[in-house]
Amino acid sequence: MSGIAFWPPAASEVAAGVDAIVIAMLAISGAIVLLVAALLLGFAIRYRRGSAARRGELPELIQKEVEVGWTAATAFLAMFLFAWASIAVLGGQRGDPDALEIHILARQWMWKARHPDGAREIDALHLPRGEPVRLVMRSEDVIHSFYVPSFRLKQDVLPGRMTQLSLKPTQTGEFPLFCAEYCGTLHSRMLGKVVVMEPEDYARWRAAQPQADDLAREGRALFESVGCSGCHAPASRVHAPELRGLYGRQVALADGSVRRADEAYLRDSILQPRRDIAAGYEPVMPPFAGILGEGELQAILAYLMSMPARGASPGEPRNMSSEP
Ligand code: HEC
Ligand SMILES: [Cu+2]
Q: Which residue minimizes the CA distance to atom 11 of ligand 1?
């Protein structure tokens, strides 16, 4: 990519709205600059040395009215812009439950993406046009910021905390992806591209990618090497729950509540097992927060999510058939 695109294409659903706000703010700021410059010039001429203009104290009343007037007007203007921008930006973040969920892992200095069936890519992100997408983002090290100017969207990516970005691409093509938070020596090279394709092309692209197997396989090796299997393997002497087919199931907890074992539940169960104890088990599992890196955790999660329940219903996406 060469040069700077001062007005990149508007390629997401919120882009046109954001542009309208930018133009309105430019127009308002421009009008204020003109007004101030004109007054400055006018007063400089009128009150130049030796002119006959009247000088001295302003009448008290006029002074007060002008003061109240401009304070109220600018406060109103600021609140109006605040409301307008909030509605435009937050409206797009309400999130669609059926959105395509893609995981983004940022690290010094690359962007990694993982698609629902496990297809992975680095410094590139393929998206289908016209479909709602939710990016679930985490950082493995420092704070990064996911920024796609053509989408008019930017979101910080933090270590130890998940952030989300909902969007809907509206144009096919390739759009640059930047890191917009200084994150070390090669920050300026933390670049990628977003490739928006027609939904059929995206489906074809995804099907052609190597699937989750490699990530899940990595997770399976970790499952043994960090000691999970010592308790969770069927033959273990520790009384620990069966993890096969856990993903997506309803889980009864010791406090009497029931939760769906989604990815967030699995993640919490590994990092902070004392928070949600499975009913009928002792809270003997050690917390793995600070022990597993984000990448390792994602591999283990991919492994857990890839294990089908015995007699799993078809239709559930499962992509690893091998036994634990
Ligand atoms: C010392 C034995 C032990 C080790 C080691 C261990 N676990 Fe556990 N795990 C348990 C027990 C007991 C429970 C049930 C009580 C609870 O929910 O904390 C459990 C619960 C879980 C759950 C929630 C299951 C459910 O039905 O709600 C998950 C997921 C899990 N472990 C994954 C792992 C992973 C991944 C590792 C390795 C990083 C691991 N465990 C290491 C003993 C262990
Ligand atoms: Cu960065």
A: 240
Q: What is the pTM of this model?
A: 0.62
Q: Is residue 88 a contact partner of residue 17, using CB atoms and an 8 Å limit?
A: yes
Residues with Cβ within 8 Å of 73's Cβ and at least 6 positions away in sequence, in order, are none
Looking at the structure, tell me whether residues 188 and 223 fall in a common domain: no
Output the domain CATH number for residue 20. 2.60.40.420
Q: Are 254 and 193 part of one and the same domain?
A: no
pLDDT, tens only, 68-119: 998 999 899 999 999 999 888 887 777 777 888 899 999 888 999 988 877 8
Domain ends where: 210, 227, 255?
Answer: 210
- From 232, 246, 294, mutation site for ligand 1 pocket: most ligand atoms within 8 A of C-beta: 232
171-222 pLDDT, tens per residue? Answer: 999 999 999 999 998 999 899 999 999 999 999 888 887 765 677 888 888 9
Ligand 1 atom with least separation from CA of 265: 29
Q: Which ligand is nearest to the CA of 109?
A: 2
H or E, element range at 233: none
Q: Ligand 2 center to residue 182 CA distance, Å?
A: 6
* Domain coverage including residue 285: 213-306
Cα 57 to averaged position of ligand 1 atoms, centre (Å) = 79
| Total count of domains within the chain | 2
CA-closest residue to ligand 1 atom 41: 228
Q: Are residues 177 and 206 in the same domain?
A: yes
Q: 244 φ, ψ to 5°?
A: -65, 125
DSSP symbol at 244: T
Determine the atom of ligand 1 nearest the C-alpha atom of 284.
12
Nearest CA to ligand 1 atom 22: 269
Q: Are 136 and 168 in contact (CB under 8 A)?
A: no
pLDDT digits (tens, 9 = 90+) for 233-245: 887 888 888 888 8
Q: What is the CATH number of the domain that holds 222?
A: 1.10.760.10
Same domain? For 206 and 228 the reply is no
Domain identity same for 12 and 146: yes
Is the CB of residue 197 below 6 angstroms from any atom belonging to ligand 1?
Answer: no
CA 166 centroid distance within chain: 7
